[in-house]
């Protein structure tokens, strides 16, 4: 028998109006947005559904994305869809935590609100990120190590697409070296900080302090963490891994490889966009990939 995984996208997939049809159609979704708003001290529905500049600012993006992902997740669960395992890219890992039942929604939303603020504040100017296309991770890692300043791999997304992060001059210099080394392209990303960089270590420390007062339970289903690209089964390690995640590489390619090797043949991407589906198709054409971003997507997912 095959297995089903729930996977959750990260920052960058957000758009105005995301989740609005779920909010209008399902009381369960409305209750999730209400819980997110109460925990964050914001009108999360207004943030997600109306035109505004805040949606693309990290401290607001993260709570908006997670509320939408969890709202859709809860509707799917209410409809009877279950997963054998879960994973999420960067902030999407918190969607995986919700799927695994690791913590209640109130502390989950409070944490993601703090995470967004801490990441925004940790390195407000002078950071950069760039997508490197067509070069393997080992070569990119070598170039980053040989570049003056702070630059490292932020996301190993899939074969041929890796994101680097760090100080702006170091990222720019690394990009020039990488293009000379055979990268097809190096594309600067429109981001507000050097995310998943050692430069965000202070954000991780602040998040660790917030996590101290949070109760966590053993996962109902296995989930794979970004930091180690491995299943987390010991609830005692969850807090440590979440604190490390903000300044560590997101090992998404290895995460998907692990799930594929373990017999997952159906992936349900929950939340805005089709980013994770695109990564998966570069790794395997033999698996079923479903996206649930709108109410109209439910029938295919529940079939």
Task: Report on this structure.
- This protein is of the alpha/beta class.
- The chain is 45% helix and 17% strand.
- A 6-stranded mixed sheet has the order 8-7-2-1-9-10, with helices on both faces. Strands 4-5-3-6 form a 4-stranded antiparallel sheet.
- Helix 2 packs across helix 6 and helix 9 packs antiparallel against helix 10.
- The two termini are 17 Å apart.
- The model has no long low-confidence stretch (mean pLDDT 96).
List descriptors.
4-stranded antiparallel β-sheet; 13 helices; globular; alpha/beta; 6-stranded mixed β-sheet; 303 residues
Total helical elements: 13
Structural category: alpha/beta
Q: Can you tell me the overall shape?
A: globular
* Strand order across the largest sheet: 8-7-2-1-9-10
Radius of gyration, Cα only, in angstroms?
Answer: 18 Å
Summarize the model shown.
By secondary structure, the chain is an alpha/beta fold. It has 13 helices and ten strands.
How are the secondary structure elements laid out?
Blueprint: E1 3-8, H1 20-25, H2 27-40, H3 44-49, H4 58-78, E2 85-88, H5 92-100, H6 105-122, E3 127-133, H7 137-145, E4 151-158, E5 161-167, H8 168-180, E6 185-188, H9 201-211, E7 223-224, E8 231-232, H10 238-245, H11 252-261, E9 264-270, H12 275-281, E10 288-292, H13 298-302
Parallel strand pairs: 1-2, 1-9, 2-7, 9-10
Antiparallel strand pairs: 3-5, 3-6, 4-5, 7-8
Helix pairs in contact: 2-4, 2-6, 4-5, 4-6, 6-9, 7-8, 9-10
